[in-house]
Design goal:
alpha/beta, two-stranded antiparallel ribbon, Arc Repressor Mutant, subunit A, D-Maltodextrin-Binding Protein, domain 2
Amino acid sequence: MAHTDPLSIRQLEVFVALVDQGSFTKAARHMGLSQSTVSGHIADLEKRLGVRLVGRERTGVTPTGAGEILLRPARDALRAERNARMAAAELTGLLRGTLSLGGSTIPAVYLIPGLLTRFRDMHAGVTVHLLTGDSTDVVELVRTGDVDVAVTGVKPRARGLQVERLGSDELVLITHPDHALAAKKSVTLQEVLPMPVVLREEGSGTRQAMLEAMGMRHNERELDVVCHVGSTEAVKAAVRADLGISFVSNLAVVNDLKAGALAVVPVKGVSPRRDFWMVAREEDDISPAGRAFWNAVCELQPA
């Protein structure tokens, strides 16, 4: 029979860590506990709820159906507990705790580090966790509450989110230095379209902007796509190997151009720009650390 007493935050924390880490050994190491302590917390939580929460297999630990149902409210409870502690610390002017940030490929490398420098100057007691992914992924992390704030190359359309523009970049056509197009001062889009292309994965803001610049919207069927890759660095590596051409952010190729590892070729009539956006849940649903980061970044933006 399930108990009606309030659940222990510590037990929920152990349960979430166990699911995330996939084994009792890894969860114990992650939390700095003994394996027997982790096992004891899970056993007690299962007894209190009257259900089995995890399946113990040779390949690791996976949540049962009941465990899957508990996982989201457990994460919500841990986030609420963390936010309560940070809110109390905020009253003293000494904000502490954890800031969870999300960043799509280009912002994570070229924008967020500079923003964090400003934030850390103001709130040195906050530890930052940065999760990266494509634009669609990081917006979803914000929506589900897995990160406090994200910076992305696609403006989200989901309800319940606030957004702030953080500037823009320009996509440039890159080729191998010995590619036939590299010798030209500029090319037309008609010259580009038949060439083998390296393309980012579905959900990437760079991919979306590239296809729109080439008149494809979200359809790649008219292109000779030689491979799909999951990051800007992978795109550049494929182009350096002369697998094909591609469009990437001008922010990402400064060092490659200096080293002569890549060439940039202007495309007549095509200068695709895309905006970067800071994204968070609405004001009442953002953590103190997330709100502090949001405010610090907004102060840096020109009026």
